[in-house]
Amino acid sequence: MLVPLVEADPSICGGKAAMLGAMLRAGLPVPEGFVLSFAVYRAALGELPPRVLAQRPELLRELVEKRPLPRSLLESLERAIERLDAPHLAVRSSAAYEDTSEASAAGQYESVLAVQGVAGVADALRVCWGSLFSSRALAYRAGGPGDPDRHHEPGMAVIVQRHVDAEMSGVMFTPPDQDGVTVIESAWGLGTSVVAGTVTPDTYRVQADGTVTCAVADKRTRRDRHGTEVLVREVPAVERERATLGGATATGLAALGTKVAAALGGPQDIEWAIADGRAWLLQARPITAAPPPTPPSAATSPDPARLTLTGTPGSHGTATGTARTVRGPRDFVRVRPGDVLVCPFTDPAWTPLLRIADGVVTETGGTLSHAAIVAREHGIPAVLGVPDALERVHDGVTVTINGTTGTVTIPTS
Q1: 314 contacts 382 by C-beta, under 8 angstroms
Q2: CA atoms of 151 and 97, how far apart (whole Å)
Q3: Which of 76, 94, 296, 356 is the most exposed, fewest CB within 10 Å of its CB?
């Protein structure tokens, strides 16, 4: 069953689609689209082999991604795409138990941007379905927060929407009360850079009275659509340390956030984008774990026996352990329980490492990135955006991190 996005219900379309539908019904600026419900997923895949599910669940992803789609489904897709009349589409997961108040599943399932035509949507659809059985999703469902039975019957609805060619985009956390502060992270191009933590974003704090403060970051890369691909390119030097948002735009986003929170009944983690001067809302989920507040600056006396590095507080708590530098998947096997990960950024594929590590330090990323959210859900401290952390924190040294204050301390001898 293909459901108009504005009519999406969580019981048949998943939490992500339902949130978008609720925002559309409230008159908020959400790109139009439709949803392939859980029923479509079940009908298209038929009976998956239970022996494989029990013994080799990782093989299910390959089975799903190669599954031919019924002709009737392809014909329905073609008609729905024609009605949408969009040059490019975004195809996004809306899994059971995703974007709930208990578990965000942030970054665990796939989205495919810049999609064209029925064949492109069909391929993207299978990618979303297959991501239910990726190693990171299996690890998250097995060891993450929320309902312990949620992994027994996984299901995947899929959203198809107009693709937004964002000039700048990011994430916004609305406050728990009307007198609180809205936190906005922003970078150039598509928002995948911010949510994936591959860029350190600008951070805006919008007070209830409209006062805006901004910490401008060195935004070295951006992602943009080029045809049917999303490409990463370097940001020109003149743009890297230029603020992505003006004060009026930041307050306008905060006002939108207030409307979203009112429509959805509580504080929200919102993905947004701006294209041709217009703000769009791309996703909203309940905030499962609030980030640490910005710590007050404090003068400290230098300690010749210790080097203290400073980054962005990402997840509360402190930890002392062996630093394990992780530059990519080849280094995963070196990580041991109790290690502190030191890495360029924490791609969602690295979620299984967050189950055994005692803490994480990254060179890029913001406090609202997917990895920071998952670290908070797992209750491990995280310090983000520490410049040159991989060069300054050597593999095997004892390191102490404080995710509440955003500091990393290592011995100098």
Answers
A1: yes
A2: 9
A3: 296
> Is a pLDDT exceeding 70 seen at residue 396?
yes
- Going by pLDDT thresholds of 50, 70 and 90, the confidence category of residue 149 is very low
Q: Tell me, what's the pLDDT at 371?
A: 73
Nearest one of 319, 311, 371 to 346, comparing CA atoms: 371
* DSSP per residue, 175-202: -SSTTS-EEEEEEEB-THHHHHTSSPPE
Which residues fall within 8 angstroms of residue 74, CB to CB, at 6 or more apart? 118, 122
DSSP letter at 150 equals T
Helices 247-264/10-25 angle, 10° precision: 130
Which tops the pLDDT comparison, 55 or 113?
113
| Domains annotated on the chain, with CATH | 2-162 (3.30.1490.20), 168-286 (3.30.470.20), 306-411 (3.50.30.10)
Question: Concatenated DSSP letters for 281-335?
Answer: EEEEEE-SSPPPPPPPP------TTEEEEE-EEEES-EEEEEEEE--SGGGGGG-
The predicted-structure confidence for 201-211, as pLDDT tens digits, reads as follows 999 999 999 99
Task: Report the Cα–Cα distance between both ends of the chain, in Å, rounded.
Answer: 64
Amino acid letter, 265: G
Could you confirm whether 226 is annotated as catalytic? no
Cα separation, 282 vs 366, in Å, equals 19
Q: What is the pairing mode between strands 318-325 and 340-343? A: parallel
d(CA 384, CA 159): 31
Taking 70 as the threshold, does the pLDDT of residue 27 lie above it?
A: yes
Residue 231 contacts residue 199 (beta carbons within 8 Å): no
pLDDT (average), residues 226-247: 96
Does residue 306 register a pLDDT over 50? Answer: yes
Tokens 């011995």 belong to which residue? 411
> What is the rounded CA–CA span in Å between residue 387 and residue 257?
31
Question: Which of 151, 316, 370, 378 does the annotation list as catalytic?
Answer: 370
Any idea what the Cα angle at residue 342 is, between residues 340 and 345, rounded to 5°?
125
Residue 108's Cα: distance from chain center in Å? Answer: 8
The 10 Å CB-count burial string (b at 16+, else e) for 7-17 is ebebebbbbbb
pLDDT of residue 147: 43
Residue 395 has a CB neighbour count (10 Å cut-off) of 14
- Between CA 132 and CA 357 the distance in angstroms is 23
Q: What is the mean pLDDT of residues 142-168?
A: 73
The helix-helix angle for 10-25 and 38-45 (nearest 10°) equals: 140
